[in-house]
Each structure stands twice: as C-alpha cells, then as structure tokens.
User: Which sequence fits this backbone?
C-alpha cells in the first residue's frame, strides 16, 4: 500500500472546505437569506475556479502517484465505478429537483472522464505537461470552445445547468496535476512535518463521500431552520 502524501491530503481538504463554504452560501441565497450573485457573479465565479483547480490538480496528482510506475487496473476501475455511480446519482437527483437545470456533466462526470483520458499520461509527466499547456493555450486563444463537444447536442440539454465543468480547459489542469505528481517537490511531501490530528486530514481522504452528502445535509439543515421560523 502506498504511503499517504500529507501535502496532497491537505490540498484536497482545503478544496473540500472551500467547496462546502461555497455551497453553503449558494444555499443561503436559494433560501433567501442573502442576495449575493453566486455562483456566477464577480468574485464568486473566480472562487469556484480556485476550488475546481485544487480538486483537478489532485486528480492528476493521484493518477501519477498511484499509477506512475504501473497501472493498478483493479484500483482504477473500482474508483472509476465509484465516481461514475456518484455522477449518475447527482444527475438523477438534479432531474428531480431541478428539471429545467439538471446536471448532465458536473464535477464527478468530469473526474470520471478525465481519469480515463489522463491515465495514459500517468507515467509520462513531460507529455502530460505538454498536453496540459496545449489545452490551456488552445482554450485561451479561442481555438476550442468550452461547450465542446456538448455544443453538438445542445438541443437536448438545458441552456443552463446547476453545475457544468467544460472538458476544455479543465482537462489541461488535470494534466498539469499529473506532471506535478512526478515532481521532486511533491515527492518530498513538504507538509509532512505538520502535526495533524486524524480528523484534520479525514476530509481529504474521503472527498467523494463528503461531496455526495454535504449538500443534502446543508439543504436539510436550512429547510429545518426555515420551518422553525
């Protein structure tokens, strides 16, 4: 079994904490407690980008860390199925709760696909770096539209989804994560000397579970508060 990388766990924990904060504020807006323009207003959109960047860097790092020497097919398929089932659950719940804005390609959908696409780069950090930069540059030059490839089936999809993660440019971030996963800096685990209690690293080690349950918990809590008003 591979040793835990404390630095990666803490980066993933930070992403989880920021995500919960972001969604809690989003839920406060949905319940009418605040009038902030979240998720698409100035500042909030950039806040979401920071969260996604942290998550997707960790996806790439994880691929390099686990599969960088030899592809662990059994572990890969187990994790892939878990993420895919989580994505299907998100889509099903969104169809029931938000039929006009259902989620067809959100964070978990992206992670499932990006994991498959980036796996061939897991042992090729320089190739991952090259492709990562290529995708980011192509996106910023307008060569590839962020709606690709969904632009071709747009008539069957909602015009606005409650969560949407474009393959481009975010796959480029995953590729950069693969490159970072092979770096000597990360291999040294620079944050390993931080004295952590088990609960402090727990979120980063169980990010999928937290991702799936945190919104029902937050919405349930605010619904209960709303009923007591």
Assistant:
């Amino acid at each position: 079994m591979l040793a835990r990388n404390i630095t990666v766990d803490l980066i993933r924990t930070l992403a989880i904490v920021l995500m919960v904060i972001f969604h809690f504020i989003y839920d406060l807006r949905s319940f009418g407690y605040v009038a902030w323009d979240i998720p698409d207003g100035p500042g909030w959109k950039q806040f979401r980008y920071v969260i996604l960047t942290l998550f997707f860097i960790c996806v790439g790092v994880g691929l390099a860390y686990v599969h960088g020497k030899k592809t662990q097919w059994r572990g890969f398929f187990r994790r892939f199925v878990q993420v895919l089932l989580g994505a299907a659950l998100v889509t099903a719940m969104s169809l029931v709760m938000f039929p006009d804005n259902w989620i067809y390609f959100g964070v978990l959908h992206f992670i499932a696909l990006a994991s498959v696409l980036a796996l061939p780069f897991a042992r090729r950090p320089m190739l991952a770096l090259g492709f990562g930069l290529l995708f980011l540059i192509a996106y910023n030059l307008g060569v590839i539209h962020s709606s690709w490839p969904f632009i071709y089936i747009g008539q069957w999809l909602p015009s606005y989804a409650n969560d949407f993660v474009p393959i481009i440019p975010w796959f480029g971030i995953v590729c950069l994560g693969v490159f970072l996963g092979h770096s000597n800096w990360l291999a040294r685990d620079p944050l390993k000397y931080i004295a952590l209690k088990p609960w402090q690293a727990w979120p980063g080690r169980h990010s999928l579970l937290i991702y799936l349950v945190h919104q029902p918990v937050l919405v349930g809590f605010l619904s209960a508060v709303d009923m007591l008003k």
Notes: The chain has nine helices and no strands.
